[in-house]
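Quick log. Single chain, no ligands specified.
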Amino acid sequence: MKRDLDLIRKILQACEEAPSAIPGKLSLEGHLEEEIGFHIYLLGQAGLMETNDQTGLGDRSPSAKPVCLTWAGYEFLEASRNDGVWSKAKGAANASGGMAFEVLKAVLIGLCTQAAMKATGL
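-> predicted structure:
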């Protein structure tokens, strides 16, 4: 299964918006349960979310359920919150020949830093 960074962002947003505890089963319109579970598993690997591995014997791809966002998850979410910044960062990361997560994250932080400096007149 191919990694989808837009879906990763949607999962982080949905978990942040949960009224209390993060739901054990997350559903997002237009995405299969298997696809969501795989991306939650990736979020755990990336350290953006604490997860419970739900991978069973014979499963085609690993799967997990969300527990809570980590500090790094909240930081990524804040950096990617603005849709315009998100689109710019994805475009810049893609220009490097692929969408490497660490490149995307660095571009997001750079864009947010530029916006903050401009807003303060620095």
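Helices lie at 5-17, 33-45, 71-79, 83-95, 101-120.
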